[in-house]
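Translate structure to sequence.
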């Protein structure tokens, strides 16, 4: 009874979830050590932070032990220049 219109099936995010191994970081800021270690992209470009025009695609799925994998879909967006 707080005025929130939360409905069954609503998807909630709790922030980044990172793994213990290098490459399993949940945020670019973590992966680049605060912008100190660039990530090399497949085309050879590097990034320490997102840039205007960058397209971000997130895909989610879940799977339990001895259970089928369930896809939760995809969401994408493009970084626009500041106005």
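Result:
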């Amino acid at each position: 009874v707080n005025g929130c219109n939360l409905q069954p099936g609503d998807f909630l995010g709790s922030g980044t979830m990172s793994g213990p191994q290098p490459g399993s970081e949940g945020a670019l800021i973590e992966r680049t050590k605060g912008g100190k270690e660039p990530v090399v992209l497949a085309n050879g470009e590097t990034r320490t932070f997102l840039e205007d025009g960058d397209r971000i695609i997130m895909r989610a799925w879940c799977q339990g032990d001895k259970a089928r994998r369930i896809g939760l879909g995809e969401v994408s967006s493009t970084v626009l220049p500041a106005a």
